[in-house]
Every structure is written in structure tokens, then in C-alpha cells.
């Protein structure tokens, strides 16, 4: 199920849009202002952000700029601010679409669904596990929507764990799958690489569990 973050300070508007999205098969989280939105984005991965502009604490322009410094998640502005200068500013900051209030719920849904399709198509085949996502065609990793640079070996190890999430893989299995049969190093190479990968993933590194005397397992939740 696709996940949408709706950032809107008007309670009635939040409920109307959330209920409509949910009725059409979208998982919709809500944020009442920009600061709450950024808190959610630190812990969750979303397919689209629907973002108001006029909000307390941080406005939509500030949120968009902050998100774009670390993520390419599609952003749609949903706002009463419909003048050309505001639209141009939104696009300059990196938004993908712009809808002016009052609006059609059906049109808004269609635009969100189009952004989801576009985002998933650009990423190609993807793997997800908890906060971690891999775009296989680009060999790129995100954690809660934020790009995480990985070394080639760390990426290969993470892809292997994600393709077998929930399963315990021994060090010998990981060595075979990730390093190959011709690798001349020992099993300790796996432990060193797991430590490196956990560090790169930050808090999401806790999803990689050590199973005593057995190996490693990737779990959905840290």
C-alpha cells in the first residue's frame, strides 16, 4: 500500500482528505505543521508528501527546502496561495505538483497516484524493510526517505539481507552470496562489514540483528 504524508494545519481539511485517500487504498499519515512533518519524515518512508504552505512553526516552503536537501520523495503543494510567484517559488524549491484550494478531491487523488507511479517507475524495482528502502536500478538506499550513501560492498550486503528479510543467514552464506566463492578472506570479514553497514544506516541499523552462533537477520522493526 502506498504511504502519503498529509501536512495541513486545518483539522477539517486533514480529515476530509485523509478519509478520501484511505477510502481509495492509500495509507495516509497526518501532520499539523511543518515541524511535526519533519519529525514523521525522520522515522517513516513515504511515497508522496501533500504539503500546505501557510502553517505554524515551519511553513510549507521551509519544509520543502528541508526535505529536498536529503530526499527526492515527490512533493505536492496543496494551498490557497495560488499566485504565479508562489507557484514558481514552489517549483524552484523542488515540488513536483501544485494544487490550489478550493480543489477537487478526485483530481487531487489522481495527481497523487500519478506521482506515486512516477516515483516508483523512476526507482525501478524496489525493496523495502521497515524504514529502509533500496532502488535496485540505481543501487541507491534511503532510510525514512533520506538518501544514505553506501559503499558497493555495504550495498550488496544490505540487498542480500533485504531479499531474505526475516531469515537467519549464516556468515558462510553471506560470504558466499556477497563476496563470492573466490574470496580468500575469512568469516570475520562479514562481521566487519555488518558493523560498517549498521553505522551507515544510523538508527535503522538496529534492524540488522545478530543471532547468537547462527548469523544475521534483517527485521522489519528495529
Detail the topology: elements first, then pairings.
Blueprint: E1 3-7, H1 11-23, E2 27-31, H2 34-43, E3 48-51, H3 60-68, E4 75-79, H4 84-93, E5 97-100, H5 105-123, E6 126-129, E7 132-135, E8 140-143, E9 146-147, H6 152-163, H7 171-179, H8 188-201, E10 208-211, E11 215-218
Shape: elongated
Computed Rg: 20 Å
> In what order do the strands lie side by side in the largest sheet?
2-1-3-4-5
Q: What percentage of the residues does DSSP assign to strands (E)? A: 15-25%
Query: Overall mean pLDDT score?
Result: 88
Q: Largest sheet, described in full?
A: 5 strands, parallel
Give the proportion of residues in helices. 40-55%
Number of helices: 8
Distance between the termini: 21 Å
Alpha-beta content class = alpha/beta
**Assembly annotation:** single chain
List keywords for this structure.
222 residues; elongated; 4-stranded antiparallel sheet
Tell me what the structure shows.
This protein has 222 residues and is α/β, with parallel strands linked by helices. It is 43% helix and 20% strand. It is built from eight helices and eleven strands. It has helices at residues 11-23, 34-43, 60-68, 84-93, 105-123, 152-163, 171-179, 188-201; strands spanning 3-7, 27-31, 48-51, 75-79, 97-100, 126-129, 132-135, 140-143, 146-147, 208-211, 215-218. The longest helix has 19 residues, at 105-123. It is elongated. 31% of the residues are buried.
Amino acid at each position: 500500500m502506498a504511504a502519503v504524508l498529509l501536512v495541513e494545519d486545518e483539522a477539517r481539511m486533514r480529515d476530509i482528505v485523509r478519509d478520501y485517500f484511505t477510502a481509495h487504498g492509500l495509507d495516509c499519515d497526518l501532520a499539523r505543521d511543518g515541524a511535526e512533518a519533519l519529525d514523521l519524515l525522520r522515522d517513516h518512508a513515504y511515497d508522496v508528501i501533500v504539503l500546505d504552505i501557510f502553517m505554524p512553526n515551519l511553513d510549507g516552503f521551509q519544509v520543502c527546502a528541508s526535505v529536498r536537501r536529503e530526499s527526492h520523495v515527490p512533493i505536492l503543494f496543496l494551498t490557497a496561495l495560488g499566485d504565479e510567484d508562489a507557484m514558481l517559488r514552489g517549483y524552484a524549491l523542488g515540488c513536483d505538483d501544485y494544487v490550489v484550494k478550493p480543489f477537487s478531491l478526485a483530481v487531487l487523488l489522481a495527481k497523487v497516484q500519478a506521482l506515486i507511479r512516477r516515483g516508483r517507475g523512476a526507482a525501478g524495482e524496489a525493496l523495502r524493510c521497515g524504514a529502509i528502502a533500496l532502488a535496485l536500478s540505481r543501487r541507491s538506499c534511503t532510510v525514512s526517505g533520506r538518501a544514505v550513501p553506501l559503499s558497493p560492498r555495504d550495498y550488496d550486503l544490505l540487498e542480500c539481507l533485504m531479499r531474505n528479510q526475516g531469515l537467519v543467514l549464516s556468515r558462510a552464506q553471506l560470504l558466499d552470496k556477497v563476496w563470492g566463492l573466490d574470496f580468500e578472506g575469512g568469516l570475520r570479514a562479514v562481521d566487519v562489514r555488518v558493523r560498517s553497514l549498521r553505522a551507515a544506516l544510523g538508527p535503522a541499523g538496529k534492524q540488522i540483528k545478530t543471532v547468537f552462533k547462527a548469523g544475521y537477520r534483517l527485521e522489519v522493526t528495529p
